[in-house]
Amino acid sequence: MRNRLLVLVSAVVLVDTMFYAAIAPLLPQYADDLGLSKSAAGVLSAAYPAGTLIASIPAGLLAARAGVRPTLLLGLALLGASSIAFGFGEEIVVLDLARFVQGVGGACAWTGGLAWLLAASPRDQRGATIGTALAAAIAGVLLGPVLGGVATVAGPEPVFSAVAVVAAALAAAAIRTPAAAPEPVPPIRSVARAILSAPVLVPFWLVALPSLFAGVFDVLAPLRLDVLGASGIAIGAIFLVAAGVEAVASRAVGGLSDRLGRMTPIRAGLAASALAALALPLPGSVALLAGAIVLAVLALALLWAPAMALLSDAAEAAGLELAFATALVNLAWAGGQVLGGSAGAGIAEASSDAVSYVLVAALFASTLAGLRLAAPLGEAPARG
After folding, report:
1. At what angle do helices 23-34 and 232-260 cross, to 10 degrees?
2. Which entry of 18, 47, 60, 178 is 20 to 30 Å from 106 by CA?
3. What DSSP letter does each residue of 198-261 carry, written as one string?
4. 270-295: per-residue pLDDT in tens?
5. Would you state the pLDDT for residue 384?
6. By C-alpha distance, which of 202, 193, 180 is closest to 323?
């Protein structure tokens, strides 16, 4: 049962992130065809996480009250509809709205799917479980730029219509998979008090921060590669290699955090990410920038699974249902993506890419310094 569920949830997050990541090679084309500025391109990129940001807590409430399976099915329905709208959209407003709706669907799919999966997993295996799901999600990020690259050649209509067909097939599989009935939901006031407690807010920030960094270079790196002469297919290939490295590393780091404690890889990831952010604006060739992108996602791989597992542990310890814990993971990820994709691009347009990257590096460095001064958090290996 757990293995079957792991396959289902992994497939769902793979398809979701595949559509999300397809924007990378398409972004320069849309910028040229629609006359988009860096800020407008940032809005298009950030529309998906904006939908996730707004829908994360409602998705948690829905999963807690209606159940994880209906929440997952709603997410897949929204994913299918929005993929068709994106494929056939020809105006920037339609494209922005389609990605926003996909983000809402992503919030439902991830919240329902991860809560369903974590409820079936022992606590001392959560790092590895989340790492496996993340590896599948990153595989979607691997395939997404390829999907976008194909769409630059074959056209977006057939490519994104195929995504809707796959989403329908996954929904059929979810209907046939057993799920536990939802438990009584605690009062909203107690949920809010638990969410705003320090033990939950610290790991929440540790998920949001790498997401902010990813949001910045998901916009700036493809545009910079385009300026340096890379084609849409080349940009897709670069992100393909980078995501492959991240997928392998995330699964390994998730299991490591179960054995050694969450904070060991998190501290290493904070330091490595600060250095990676400082390096990204420096390359003056496609090859060097490609290498810097690979190093950046490898640094982030040290953070994702341990930080998400730490947030799930902290939320559950504060008395929250796993549906709310996974909703917080979505909220932290989406908040960082929105801020990085929109504000990061806006700062870069008003000044330079280097200014945005330096500000991100400062956030990583100050967070690392703050953790050294704070009380120990997540140092011990997880226990069942």
Report:
1. 140
2. 178
3. HHHHHHHHHHHHHHHHHHHHHHHHHHHHHHTT--HHHHHHHHHHHHHHHHHHHHHHHHHHHHH-
4. 999 999 999 999 999 999 999 999 99
5. 43
6. 180
How many whole angstroms separate alpha carbon 20 and alpha carbon 333? 13
Which domains, and CATH codes, for the chain? 2-179+190-373 (1.20.1250.20)
Q: Is 178 exposed, middle or buried (0-12, 13-18, 19+ CB in 10 A)?
A: exposed
Residue 282 is which amino acid? L
Tokens representing 323? 């549906």
Q: Which tokens is 349 given?
A: 């347009």
Distances (CA, A) of 337 to 45, 52, 216, 334, 350: 9, 10, 8, 5, 19
Burial class (CB in 10 A: 0-12, 13-18, 19+), 225: buried
| 99: its two tokens | 């990605």
d(CA 307, CA 305): 6
CA 352 – CA 212 distance, rounded (Å): 17
pTM value is 0.74
Q: Is residue 234 scored above 80 in pLDDT?
A: yes
Per-residue pLDDT, 266: 93
The Cα-based distances of 82 to 105, 167, 331 in angstroms read: 9, 11, 20
Q: State the DSSP string of 272-318.
A: HHHHHHHHTT---SHHHHHHHHHHHHHHHHTTHHHHHHHHHHHHHHT
